[in-house]
């Protein structure tokens, strides 16, 4: 009987320790990489390599959605950084215009913290050409699964990473990619 109790307690202790180690690892990865970025394309991503400029309109928030007040401006900055990384300047022809709206925001809660935090922002983005025609549309997702990569700043960076992936999928290269060709 005593042996069964000891083995059961040992098994429980090991499982608790392994959960703690997993959390430590995810926090370390979160600290190093920040929030992740994911693209959910609506339709098909067209070939974007012919475009030279991207104008980013003011980021809006869906009616009734509560977000940190600084988040739209932070997302706008991160989108501009991603566009510039892919060679899109603020002026030039042919150009694109990006309009975006924050349609979902989820901050971590006490329950999430117990089983692993999750914060997420979803931005519905649309690229239009000079004629006003929609060239592409996607959901840009910034997601954090670690306390160390949570918060408005990190989630905004995640949205920037998502735009970078979308532009890359559309054929836009970074300066270092162009040097490799």
3D structure, described in words:
This protein has 181 residues and is α/β, with parallel strands linked by helices. The chain is built from 5 helices and 6 strands. It has helices spanning 2-33, 71-85, 110-115, 152-169, 175-180, and strands at residues 36-42, 53-56, 60-61, 95-106, 119-128, 134-144. Strands 1, 2, 3, 4, 5 and 6 form a 6-stranded mixed sheet that branches. A hairpin with a 5-residue loop joins β5 (119-128) and β6 (134-144). The radius of gyration is 21 Å and the shape is elongated. The termini are far apart. Mean pLDDT is 82; it is low at 21-33.
Task: Please give the count of helices.
Answer: 5
Q: Tell me roughly what share of residues is in helical segments.
A: 40-55%
**Major sheet summary line:** 6 strands, mixed
Overall 3D geometry? elongated
Strand composition percent: 25-35%
**Measured distance between first and last alpha carbons:** 70 Å
Low-confidence stretches: 21-33
Number of extended strands: 6
Q: What are the secondary-structure elements, in order, as H or E?
A: HEEEHEHEEHH
Which key features would you list for this structure?
6-stranded mixed β-sheet; alpha/beta; 181 residues
Task: Describe the protein's topology.
Blueprint: H1 2-33, E1 36-42, E2 53-56, E3 60-61, H2 71-85, E4 95-106, H3 110-115, E5 119-128, E6 134-144, H4 152-169, H5 175-180
Parallel strand pairs: 2-4, 3-4
Antiparallel strand pairs: 1-6, 4-5, 5-6
């Amino acid at each position: 009987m005593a042996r069964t109790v000891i083995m059961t307690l040992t098994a429980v202790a090991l499982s608790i320790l392994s959960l703690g180690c997993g959390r430590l690892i995810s926090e370390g990865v979160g600290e190093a990489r920040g929030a992740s970025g994911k693209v959910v394309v609506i339709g098909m991503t067209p070939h974007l390599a012919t475009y030279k400029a991207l104008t980013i309109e003011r980021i809006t928030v869906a009616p009734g959605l509560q977000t940190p007040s600084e988040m739209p401006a932070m997302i706008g900055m991160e989108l501009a950084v991603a566009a510039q990384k892919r060679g899109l300047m603020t002026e030039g022809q042919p150009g694109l215009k990006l309009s975006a709206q924050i349609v979902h925001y989820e901050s971590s809660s006490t329950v999430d913290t117990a089983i692993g935090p999750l914060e997420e922002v979803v931005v519905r983005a649309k690229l239009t050409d000079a004629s006003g025609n929609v060239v592409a549309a996607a959901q840009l997702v910034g997601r954090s699964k670690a306390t160390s990569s949570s918060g408005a700043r990190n989630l905004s960076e995640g949205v920037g990473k998502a735009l970078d992936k979308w532009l890359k999928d559309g054929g836009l290269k970074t300066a270092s990619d162009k040097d490799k060709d």
